[in-house]
Amino acid sequence: MQSSQPTPPYHLRGDRIGREFLQLLPMGLFVAIFGIAYGLAAVQTGLAPWQATLMSTTVFAGAAQFAVLGMWGSEVALLAIIAITLAINSRHILMGAALFPMLQKLPAGRRYGLLLLLTDANWARSYQQYQSGRENLEAIIGGGLALWLAWIAGTAFGTYFGRLLADPEAMGLDMVLGCFLLAMALSGPRSRRILLVWLVAGVSAVLAWYWLPPHVHVVVGALAGGLVGLFWREKPHVHD
């Protein structure tokens, strides 16, 4: 009978945080471009430049911020804004759960402070390395800081000069993050189980995108793929 041992703490390293900052800094360029589009849309909706920049600084959730602009006016439906923000960002519940084996090694204050910087890109990098046997929470901090600063800078620039780049999707820039996430997924471990998880998640997300309300497809795809992984467990390796 094996005795349970306490989980060893996770020690964040400043040098690795700096390297991860530089690693995701190129992705920050594309984040800044969408920040420019958001800044332009925000001032056209009626927000002052400082209000749009403050929202990007404190909220840091691009899709949710764009959605909120459609509900902005002289009277703001606060409960509706909270509901749509929760729906769009509910994928973070699953992302946080995937990182829990590493997060549990941090004190509560550092754990929740770190999650304020969680995005799709730095989560994908951290989780892909975790699947390969390497723990890298520094990617959440360093990469998150790079993307957060890029989002703020893009928003501030867009409030004054956003007309120079009003429609980044017209140049295909909306595909950059998707391609990055796909590259992270393909560079991870491969097995029939993993391939089936991705297939079920992708098909479910596409069907939900066609038939269900906006933004729900992200959660549907994640839950469908997660259920496959839950019921198809890999046998643990036996070490001599």
UniProtKB/TrEMBL annotation:
InterPro entries: Brnchd-chn_aa_trnsp_permease (IPR011606). Signal peptide: none annotated. It is a multi-pass membrane protein. Its main location: membrane. Pfam families: AzlC. It is found in: Cell membrane. Keywords: Cell membrane, Membrane, Transmembrane, Transmembrane helix, Transport. The chain crosses the membrane at residues 21-43, 63-88, 139-158, 170-187, 194-210, 216-232. Belongs to the AzlC family. This is 4-azaleucine resistance transporter AzlC.
